[in-house]
Amino acid sequence: MSARTAIEIAAAVRSGERSALEVVDESLGAIDTANPGLNAFLVITADEARAVAESVDAQVAAGEDPGPLAGVPIALKDNLVTRGVATSCASRILAGWVPPYDATVVQRLRAAGAISVGKTNLDEFAMGSSTENSAFGPTRNPHDPERVPGGSSGGSAAAVASGMVPLALGSDTGGSIRQPASLCGVVGVKSTYGTVSRLGLVAYGSSLDQIGPFATTVADAALLLEVIGGHDPGDSTSLNLPAPDVSAHLDDGVDGLRIGVISELMGEGIAPEVAARVRAAAEVMAAAGATVEEVSIPSISASLSAYYMVATAEASSNLSRYDGVRYGNRVEAANVTDMMTATRTQGFGDEVKRRIMLGTYALSAGYYDAFYATAQKVRTKLRADFDAVYGNHDLLLCPTSPTPAWRLGEKTDDPLTMYLSDICTIPANLAGHPAASIPFGTDGAGLPIGAQLLGPTLGEATMFRAAAVLEHSAREDVANDSHNGGRK
Ligand code: GLN
């Protein structure tokens, strides 16, 4: 059987045991087979990928090391700009736009020997929780094609979960990496705000946005974070630090760690099967030597409202640049104002328009204090609440998503219900803290459930230690299940 994880693939390519071209062809073959049913990719860059693979193979042949991700196929969320490759953010307003430069993360991937095979589907401009807000049709969940993959990075999650690629990048403003990772049964990580450069990430909510990894294993996610992370002078919010050092600590265990289970995210609104899996995760931590207790973060109850003020306010400003002049498509009209109106009316989908209107309203004179300023106060209070809890806890644990994957169309007519699905992921974005979703079993119907680990600022190494413990336990459960012929 051929190597499956990124670490295994890179080892085989670096040693000359497998060619990068063979690995890339295998990934492109899997995409040919699975993508028509899932719609995970908006753009497939087969020719470019093969050309890069040949250069990686040439490096190996010349005795050079192509890097830690040598020959590893990767999928990029289509809000990461790629030189010469169309980047649409799943919006008609940018359809066909070809960026003139590569995002910093894209440059770092290439320098590490990774090979991009294409751009993945998302909710338009990353606004959504199901990938149904894409202008180019929804992505489907590989575990059940009648269900959503989560969002907004649903294409990246589905691409990894279906085995089309071992790695993908997403962006996480309010949960868009962790929530689809949870719904698709893969690992998804948002690191501390500022640890990964946002240069070349099309901005949604700039004070919240972070790029991060999707992978099938915790170790692969750790390696990918190390490759993309670290200071970038091109992003003024980039921390002046090297990438988080996580891989070296994966086997350190959780003995002696103090872990809090967030009580506000274990009751009302959380599906019983999800809460049960998180409690099982807490038991695993306790059995591995951690002290586990319930903790309270009262301001979590206000964080969803605060997020939908801050994120929409920033979005209304960020999206003003799509005016028919500077980027993408233009709808011609008699004068400039009509042209801009027609371009934006036709170019943006309903949810994007809703966000722009909400954000503009929240920032407008007379409402600014009531909405935007209040939301910022909630954000400050939430940080203070987290700080208090992290004063005597190393990590926190809660669900990633209140429910497993729902059916396509189930929430599209009710934006508020859709927003509520972000309740567990949003706090880490508002606080700027690291958080990860780790697959931790399934519901009765076999749909994946993720457990979410949260850490304080720059707590990545500790968070990954706990992630590795959960992963190990989940693997043992699957192995025991298959020994019992699938019986629970
Ligand atoms: N679902 C959230 C939103 O719609 C989060 C999206 C994201 O993280 N990009 O804003």
From TrEMBL:
Q: Which residues form the active site?
A: 77 (charge relay system), 152 (charge relay system), 176 (acyl-ester intermediate)
Q: Could you give one GO CC term from the UniProt record?
A: glutamyl-tRNA(Gln) amidotransferase complex
A Gene Ontology molecular function term for this protein is: ATP binding
Amidase domain location, by residue?
22-462
Instruction: Name the coiled-coil region(s).
Output: none
Catalytic reaction list:
L-glutamyl-tRNA(Gln) + L-glutamine + ATP + H2O = L-glutaminyl-tRNA(Gln) + L-glutamate + ADP + phosphate + H(+)
Question: What UniProt keywords are attached to this protein's entry?
Answer: ATP-binding, Ligase, Nucleotide-binding, Protein biosynthesis, Transferase
Q: What is its EC number?
A: 6.3.5.7
Q: Where are the transmembrane segments?
A: none
User: Per its UniProt record, what SUPFAM superfamilies does this chain match?
Assistant: Amidase signature (AS) enzymes
Q: Which InterPro entries match?
A: Amidase, Amidase_CS, Amidase_dom, AS_sf, GatA
Answer whether the UniProt record assigns the keyword Nucleotide-binding to this protein: yes
Gene Ontology biological process terms, A to Z: translation
Region: Disordered, residue numbers: 128-157
Superkingdom of origin organism: Bacteria
Q: Which family does it belong to?
A: Belongs to the amidase family. GatA subfamily.
Q: Could you give the subunit structure recorded for this chain?
A: Heterotrimer of A, B and C subunits.
Role according to the record: Allows the formation of correctly charged Gln-tRNA(Gln) through the transamidation of misacylated Glu-tRNA(Gln) in organisms which lack glutaminyl-tRNA synthetase. The reaction takes place in the presence of glutamine and ATP through an activated gamma-phospho-Glu-tRNA(Gln).
This chain's protein is named: Glutamyl-tRNA(Gln) amidotransferase subunit A
